[in-house]
Write a structure and sequence with these properties.
By secondary structure, the chain is of the alpha+beta class. The strands form three sheets. The protein has a four-stranded mixed β-sheet with strand order 3-4-8-5, with helices on both faces. Strands 1-2 form a two-stranded antiparallel ribbon. The protein is globular and about 45 Å long. 31% of the residues are buried.
Length: 135
């Protein structure tokens, strides 16, 4: 299943430093999580923060941040025997995290942020921090 998720998420995802402009990976992540136990808690222009439906805000929590922006012009994935090849730019990490969410492998007190603008100022990470401070 993880290989299929990597193939699904190795698609364009970019931003212009203000908002996501190519949202194919983001859309795939959101679609994959539609029937999961996770809900989007924060929907910012460069960050999407998810929490488990049983998350309790008054308990200690942990944040996992995973960038989804990429710089490739062409995307591909293939297998060569047991070897997976491609232009992943974090899509493999995105896939592992999404699968862990779908299969409820993470503790309920883990917040997940998918961010953009990773290469030029980390504005998605900054938006996540600002959002969580306000919450």
């Amino acid at each position: 299943m993880i290989t299929e998720r990597i193939f699904q998420l190795t698609v364009p995802s970019s931003d212009n430093g203000k908002k996501f402009i190519h949202t194919y990976r983001l859309d795939s992540i959101m679609g994959a999580l539609t029937d999961s136990e996770y809900e989007c808690l924060g929907d910012m222009p460069l960050a999407k923060v998810y929490r488990h439906q049983d998350f309790q805000p008054n308990k200690p929590n942990i944040l996992v941040s995973c960038h989804i922006d990429s710089l490739y012009g062409t995307y591909f994935t293939s297998t060569n025997g047991a070897e997976l090849q491609g232009t992943f730019d974090n899509s493999a990490c995105n896939a592992v995290l999404v699968e862990a969410m779908i299969q409820s492998l993470l503790p309920e007190q883990v917040l997940i942020s998918f961010t953009g603008d990773e290469e030029h100022g980390s504005k998605g990470a900054v938006q996540t921090i600002e959002f969580l401070q306000e919450e």
